[in-house]
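input
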Amino acid sequence: LQIDGNKIEHTAVNNCGIYLYSSSNNTITGNTCNNNSDGISLYSSSDNTITGNTCNNNNDFGIRLDSSSNNTITSNTCNNNSEGINLSSSSNNNTITGNTCNNNSNSGISLSTASNNTVTGNTCYNNYIHGIHLTSSSNNTVTGNTYNDNNNGICLYSSSDNTIIGNTCTNNNSYGIRLYSSSNNNTITSNTCNNNDSDGICLYSSSNNTITSNTCNNNSEGINLSSSSNNNTITSNTCNNNISGINLSSSSNTVTGNTCNNNNFDGINLSSSSNNTVTGNTCNNNSRGIHLSS
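output
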């Protein structure tokens, strides 16, 4: 079945512009689904293609997948909703690519208990809370997206084993990338996290992550680990022109080969931290190069 070229607004049936229930192998393209509860909603539906639709000004979600897997969501516009694109309840193995999700009152893209999804090449600007938010979601790949001018660019809550690579997270009101509440075993590499009001990358109660080859300049802290964020590897990052380049108040981390120059206070600061390894870093033109305090 192909559904294309329709304008659907102010619906009463399931409060959705387009609603698929236990439906597979459909193509939904070129529709306008505005001013509904959800613009396009899939429940227990798989192997569908949703492309080139406009889903704006809906009360809840621009595009919603609930218990729906192996779908492709590409080149849609989802602005001014509660959330732009939402995947929940074991919506796995979906591809979300090339969508625009701006000015939503919650998040541009949200994954909740969703795994093995690929989120690539999306633009999420000016969302009130997050550019993208992962909650209790694992083994997702988030790559090559732009998350600017949100409250947080990328936020992981209790989400582990994800790959976050090559994203741009700048000019956010709080964090460029934030991991908290046991978001463990994630790989964060080659992201640009500049000019955020708080930290470029922040780990809070999150352990065994790899943070490598990121650029975190002109933030409050370039990279900040706190509240028992232990056994992380921080390597080959550039953290310049922050208040502090790298700040640790956690233990048993490895900090190696990073460049932390021209920060207002410390290149690297360890506070109430033990059993860390700090080796081969460059810390020039800071107030203090490497600072240890209890």
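quick obs: The radius of gyration is 20 Å.
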